[in-house]
C-alpha cells in the first residue's frame, strides 16, 4: 500500500484485516525493526520518513561507521557477538563491512576490561595490546608521527573495522520492503490519541492521518519535540530528562597518489587522549577518509508548544547534512586538532573537504531507550542511540520486536526502560560527552 499523493486531511487505516504497526523513522532502529517484523510475517508494517531512503538527515546516514564488539559492558557485547558474524557473513550486511581492524589509544582501563569481557563470555576474539613503537612502524608508517602522548600501549582488535553506513542502511530498508513492508514519505507532526488516551496513529504535515494498532517512534533526536507537541499539557507523555537531542561533528578529506597508497591498509584509529579526541575511519577505494570528533553538544531553543527551552535538531541544512570545506570556526579548529593528532605530519598538507553535524538522541547513561510508553497504550519508542547504536543494525530490530511483544528479557528491559530503576553511574559510550551548546558558536540559528 502506498499513500503518497493522496488528498490532504484524509485518514488511512494501514490494515483492516491483519495487525498493523506504524514505524516512524527509517534510521537504524526503525529500519531494522521494520525488517524484523516483515520477516516474521502476520503483521502489516509501514515505515514513514521525511525523505527517500536512506534519509540524508538520519544519524544512521553516513559515509562509514565503526563496527566493533569490544565493549566492557557485557550486555552490549553479547548483542555484538551475535551481530559480528552477520556483518562478516550475511549477504545483506557483508558487502558493506570492511574488516580492517581497529586501534584504540586510550589511557583508561577500557582495553583490559574489554579483553576480560571477551574471556568471561568465552569469545575467541584476538584483541591484544601493541607497543606504541610497533604501531608507529607497522602499516607503512602511517602512524609514525601520530600523537599518542605518554601512552606505552595501544589496543588492537583485528576483527573490527568499518561499514559503509548509508549503503548498509539503504539495503536494510530495501530488504524490509522486499518482505512486504510499505514506505511512506511524510513528516510527522504529532501523535493521534483515542478517547482513552491510547495512541491510534500519527498526523503528517500535509494533513494525512495514518492509523495503526501499534506506533513505534524511532525518531532519534526529534523524539522529545514530537512528544511535547503531541500533548503539550500532558507532561506524562513528555520525554523529560530521559533523552536529549545532541549533535556531533564528522568531516572527511581525500588522499591521492603516494599518500593514498601509504594509507591503503590502515586500520580504524580511535584516539581518546584529550589533545586528540576523535576517530579516523581507515580509507575508501577513492581515497576518502572520514573522521569523527569525539564530543557532542546540545541546541537549546524556545519550544512554542510548551513555552520551555528544549534541545532540538536544527532545521537549517547547514547544521544537519554534508556541507563544503568552510564551516563554523570552532569546529574547523576542532577538526584540525583531531586529524593532526590522529596522523601527525602525514596529513599536515591535507585539507578538509566537507563537514557534517550528525544529530542523535542521547540518554544520561548512553543506554538505549527501547520501551513501551507507560502512559500511552499502543505507543512504543526505540531511540537513544547515543552515538554508538549503529553497529547493532543486524540485530537491534529483533530486540525492539521482543519489546513490543512483551518478551524482551528483563536484563535488557530494565536497562532500556522508560523509567529506569536507579543509576549506577555507568556510561555505555563514555567518549561522547557534551561540551557546550551549538548557539555558543553560532549566536542564533536561521
Automatic annotation (TrEMBL):
SUPFAM superfamilies tied to this protein: FAD/NAD(P)-binding domain (SSF51905)
UniProt entry keywords in alphabetical sequence: FAD, Flavoprotein, Oxidoreductase
Molecular function per GO: flavin adenine dinucleotide binding; saccharopine oxidase activity; sarcosine oxidase activity
Cofactors, names only: FAD
Superkingdom of this protein's organism: Eukaryota
Ranges where the FAD dependent oxidoreductase domain occurs: 21-403
Keyword Repeat assigned: no
Keyword Oxidoreductase set for record: yes
A Pfam cross-reference name: DAO
PANTHER family from the UniProt entry: FAD DEPENDENT OXIDOREDUCTASE DOMAIN-CONTAINING PROTEIN, PEROXISOMAL SARCOSINE OXIDASE
Family the UniProt entry places it in: Belongs to the MSOX/MTOX family.
Protein name, UniProt field: L-pipecolate oxidase-like protein
